[in-house]
Queue: 3 jobs
Job 1
Amino acid sequence: VQLQASGGGLVQTGDSLRLSCAASGGTISGHVMGWFRQRPGKEREFVGRIARNGASTYYDDSVKGRFTISRSNLKNAVYQQMNSLKPDDTAVYYCAATTIVGVRVRESDYRLWGQGTQVTVSS
């Protein structure tokens, strides 16, 4: 399975953005899907994840209440709606997939990675 993230761009503080992660070469229905980000000068960090059937989500405290992850196994895609964006959300965002169930927040738990998409939030 290959993952392709898209939807990044340059926005202003308070704006919204929706990232997409499209899968090809296989189905994501059996995968927990996660989003990570790498802010300038920092390590890549966990943002959130969604269960295989979409029934549950889990978010880092830094984005809780502002970001929402959803998925469509029919469309073989995962989405991340980002609202009330702040300059501190500026980062390259990555989608990732794992077959390990449960709340997985470590990079090493995810086997499949998409290329990143840049999100820049200006003040």
Note: Residues 11 and 27 are 32 Å apart (CA to CA).
Job 2
Amino acid sequence: QARLVESGGGLVQPGVSLRLSCAASGFSLDRYTVGWFRQAPGKEREDVSCIARNDGSTKYENSVKGRFTISRDSAENTVYLQMNSLKPEDTGVYYCAVYYGSGCPAEEEYDFWGQGTQIIVSS
């Protein structure tokens, strides 16, 4: 059975780093574009980052550029989101999702989603 499981969230102070994991089972993540999304309390879900399956290109939402890095570990069948210099506005539930296509599509194009992991950035 195909599964995506996010982990690595928690309650942290501003300025620290976290690394989120998106681990797949039942299929190979290398065959998919993988996206990270987040939903802050009371807000719509938004794109955070994406790594394309066809050329490995990456994409970041403007507010996380220079702070977040998305990467793949094929051996672990996992995609990571390294988040540095966390800010209170990074608070939310973070989801990963997969898209069986090339490039980084719009949110509604993603085929399969994980259940999310929560991050709270607060002093």
Note: The first strand starts at residue 3 and ends at 7.
Job 3
Amino acid sequence: QVQLVESGGGLVQAGGSLRLSCAASGIIFSINAMGWYRQAPGKQRDLVAHITSDAVTYYADSVKGRFAISRDNAKNTVYLQMNSLKPEDTAVYYCAPVRAFGSTVLPNVKSWGQGTQVTVSS
């Protein structure tokens, strides 16, 4: 069973930075693409970045140039470096293995981790 443990969130002022971590177990991490999602109150959960098994990265337009996803296969961990944070980045952030179907990327997980709260004050 896949277990995902996100950490690193917190309260930061606009323009600040945070680094999120997600430790995964129960999967062969190195062969899985991994994604970071976020969900703001009252909104759907959206994919913000994902990284393939060979470390090719993709970003939502809203975070491109500000966020950077990376992975450490030796630690079964995926990271999200978030810079130049904006109040609209406030959300709970989740990670998950993902699968791509053409241009569509979907989470490949039955249950999500607890997420980590990111709050950006103006």
Note: The chain is about 0% helix and 55% strand.
